[in-house]
Design goal:
With about 110 residues, the protein is mainly β. It has strands at about 5-15, 20-25, 55-60, 75-80, 85-90, 95. Strands 2-1-3 form a three-stranded antiparallel sheet, with no helix packed on it. A three-stranded antiparallel sheet has the order 4-5-6, with no helix packed on it.
Length: about 110
Amino acid sequence: LDAASFSGKIEISDEAGDIIRSIDLGAPNAGVQAVEWDGMTSRGLEAAPGTYTMKVTAKYTGGGEVGWTPLYSGVVDGIVFREGKSYISVGGILVTSDKLLSIGEKD
């Protein structure tokens, strides 16, 4: 997060756009916030296989939105070449090398 916030939450939506889980972040400080989704819905059921999106909302005390930048971590699956560009596949997400922060060995 770009700044400390009064409240924060993550909404996870399925392919139809329906929110299947909301995770309350409380009042997070500025900086990196590590959040892991366990694959469960708000009802306590395992989410069906598919593509999901996450929406992060963090607000100042006065109600304005705090800026944020998503960071992902995962295992490198390989390198993909498309239309003259190279991408690193991290958990199936294609990333250009200029977006990488670090690469290390798997724990």
